[in-house]
Design brief:
232 residues; alpha/beta; four-stranded antiparallel beta sheet; 10 strands; binds adenosine-5'-triphosphate
Length: 232
């Protein structure tokens, strides 16, 4: 469903992404790993048409994201706090998204019910603006927003960062359930090799903007990554 074709991104004299070809099929949980500066966030931003490519294109179901609008109904994403309206309370924010997506009150409630465990009683009814929540709780609001409106694919940059251990496990369960129940395609980046190998059936390792490993074998991916990152 997501196709990357002859993609290059150059800043000044530095090529920060160079990906000749990458296809992410529907329903795949696709993990993106790599050291700091490898190009993970830049790739997310290019897929979302937040940053233009220097060469090449990203297509969603055949549509070039920099030329069309249809893909926006298919993709949900949470990259960072800039994607939120932090001056709203979580309730106000979800009510705003409800209007944008044309959902009923019952549909919104059904969606939020899926997040009861993850929210852990600290988000809805907290009487706080999003900006005043803890980093982990802000992330939970962003993830719940990214999944609203039944997107076919969800892009999450470092979804486990800043979440406490129980929340990390709850999020993993929630993502697996979305994948099983609705065939949601997940594209996630992570520095946590345990989580990414548990969740993803495919992991691409980026180094200085290039794909240096495309791992599909679940029995071997953890040790291959441990060897690369020297944490074995
Ligand atoms: N606007 C910009 N101008 C110049 N260089 C940039 C810009 N945005 C990103 N870069 C460079 O692109 C490279 C890739 O950065 P990116 O943030 O995509 O890496 P990352 O893999 O997400 O890193 P991290 O794991 O630290 O989040 C880095 O060298 C970064 O300095």
């Amino acid at each position: 469903m997501i196709q990357i074709d002859s993609l290059k991104k150059v800043y000044g004299n530095t090529t920060v992404l160079d990906i000749p070809n990458l296809r992410i099929p529907k329903g795949q949980c696709f993990g993106l790993v790599g050291n700091n500066g490898a190009g993970k966030t830049t790739l997310f931003r290019i897929i979302l048409d937040l940053v233009r490519t220097t060469e090449g294109a990203v297509l969603v179901d055949g549509e070039n994201v920099s030329q069309g609008e249809q893909w926006k109904t298919k993709i949900g994403a949470y990259l960072d706090e800039n994607m939120l309206l932090s001056y709203l309370s979580p309730e106000e924010y979800f009510a705003t998204l409800k209007k944008i997506y044309g959902l009923s009150e019952a549909e919104l409630q059904l969606h939020l019910d899926k997040f009861t465990d993850l929210f852990n009683g600290e988000i809805l009814g907290s009487n706080k603006y999003i900006r005043d929540l803890s980093k982990g709780n802000i992330k939970k609001v962003g993830i719940a927003a990214a999944l609203l409106g039944q997107p076919e694919a969800v892009l999450l940059d470092e979804p486990f960062e800043n979440l406490d251990p129980s929340s990390q496990i709850r999020l993993k369960r929630l993502m697996l359930k979305e994948k099983t129940d609705h065939l949601v395609t997940f594209v996630i980046s992570s520095h946590d090799l345990n989580h990414v190998t548990e969740l993803c059936e495919r992991i691409v390792l980026l180094e200085k903007g290039a794909v240096i490993k495309d791992l599909h074998d679940r029995n071997r991916m953890k040790e291959e990554l441990a060897a690369y990152f020297n944490v074995g």
